[in-house]
């Protein structure tokens, strides 16, 4: 099925062979390899939410090496992690598992109206640790968004020079959007589009709800008759906003939820044309074997949506 990977890589005509080779490596890795689908295990939650909230449910997760082993055992496409964890994990796992170095993070000890992650790593560290890509979070809607966009562009230039793909977490939040608006379908679509315009090879967004934040967007969407009733419908709109589906968009797993809800959400995002999922707490907070089983079921759902022929 690698012809699908060739097709996807053709959407990045300005990128050099080294960047495309790293992107191909992720697309060819694990159980979904060659299908054009990605299932990524991200573990930056300890930094973002705190170790107790993140790992007490499954204490094995306090050790970053556990997550790398889980990603390999489950057949994940890649593993995203912050610098400290990468320094422990990379010497043993970078050869066999594509690592995405998360280059900025926000901690949960300060809660304000306009969050601003700190830049905590860069391309130099990613190269030293043999990572396959770099990752970065932006918060569209924050008063500090322009600084984040400028930081992202600086990282993108460094990544391009080093031949590393760029993965962007585009999470609307801040005083510019309401709490409900963070996952509104128009806002999530806008966030995906912004990430694409800022040079992302892979975009991570949250599954969009039916809520529409902007009245102007509501008028435009209703006038055009854009279907938004189901999650699959809304995912199609998000994908259309990402260069008409010509950028890889994967959807976050979000807070821990029951297995049936995880599977249904992935079924809907897959039906809508999503390229896969980047799912952390819903996997690593479960015991190892249960997590592997769940991730395999999620992979099967996305693989079932791959066109035949």
Please tell me about this protein's structure:
The chain has 309 residues and is α/β, with parallel strands linked by helices. The protein has helices at 2-9, 17-28, 45-49, 51-55, 64-74, 83-93, 123-128, 145-162, 185-197, 215-224, 231-241, 259-271, 281-284, 288-303; strands spanning 38-42, 78-81, 99-102, 104-105, 118-119, 133-138, 166-170, 202-205, 248-252, 276-278. β6 (133-138), α8 and β7 form a beta-alpha-beta unit. The longest helix is centred in the middle third of the chain and has 18 residues, at 145-162.
Lay out the secondary structure.
Layout: H1 2-9, H2 17-28, E1 38-42, H3 45-49, H4 51-55, H5 64-74, E2 78-81, H6 83-93, E3 99-102, E4 104-105, E5 118-119, H7 123-128, E6 133-138, H8 145-162, E7 166-170, H9 185-197, E8 202-205, H10 215-224, H11 231-241, E9 248-252, H12 259-271, E10 276-278, H13 281-284, H14 288-303
Helix pairs in contact: 1-2, 5-6, 5-14, 9-11, 11-12, 12-14
Q: Can you give me a brief rundown of this structure?
A:
The chain has 309 residues and is α/β, with parallel strands linked by helices.
Any descriptors?
single chain; 309 residues; alpha/beta; eight-stranded parallel beta barrel; 10 strands
